[in-house]
Design a protein that fits this description.
Order of helices and strands: HHEHEEHHHHHH
Distance between the termini: 39 Å
Shape: globular
Low-confidence stretches: none
Number of helices: 9
Strand order of the largest sheet: 1-3-2
Strand content: 5-15%
Length: 193
């Protein structure tokens, strides 16, 4: 199907662009075969929740992408992108890029502690805020900045922030400076020797 071709092409591009991180990605596919492979390897595999488009699993180093047709994907993705929930221009490829972004984040966590990555995120966000914002208003100001510059979904937590930033940077012709800086930091943590 055209969705399968898009997913395969996107994964191929990401693996070529990030070979070190991709080398640690063990299983990629639609949910049922990935879940069967996870169980065969002795992992406890939970089925994907209904309506979830794709997932990344750090314990099995796997990506699961639903094998829906392009029309079904687009009917879910386009309205979400139009409302700002997903980054601007989100499409089928963006969903794969988002999940690969989670994998990159998981690789960074394997190499460094979560607190170091979270601290780096805070430094970057604060650099993009006005110095005049009082400290008691900074948490809300950070959320507002993330919603404006990346997506509303990125506001959920740092995991989704980095995955959405990665999807934006790797799929958009003009990602925000904030998204670019977050992804540069993430790749340093995940891929530098």
């Amino acid at each position: 199907s055209d969705t399968a071709d898009t997913v395969a092409g996107t994964i191929h591009d990401l693996m070529r662009a990030h070979p070190r991180t991709a080398a640690n990605l063990d299983i990629i596919g639609s949910p049922a075969p990935v879940e069967a492979a996870e169980r065969a390897l002795g992992h406890r595999s939970r089925p994907m929740r209904r309506g979830v488009l794709a997932t990344a699993n750090p314990s099995t180093r796997s990506l699961r992408i639903r094998a829906w047709g392009r029309d079904k994907f687009e009917s879910l993705i386009k309205p979400s992108a139009d409302r700002g929930w997903l980054h601007k221009g989100a499409d089928v490829s963006s969903i794969v890029r988002h999940e690969f972004g989670h994998h990159v984040h998981f690789e960074a966590i394997r190499r460094f502690d979560v607190a170091s990555i979270d601290d780096a995120i805070t430094v970057i966000l604060d650099r993009h805020l006005l110095d005049s914002i009082p400290s008691f208003e900074r948490a809300q100001a950070r959320l507002d900045l993330i919603g404006r510059e990346i997506s509303l979904y990125a506001r959920a937590n740092n995991n989704e922030l980095l995955a959405e930033a990665f999807a934006s940077v790797t799929s958009s012709p003009s990602p925000s400076p904030l998204a670019r800086e977050l992804v540069e930091m993430l790749l340093r943590f995940a891929e530098e020797l």
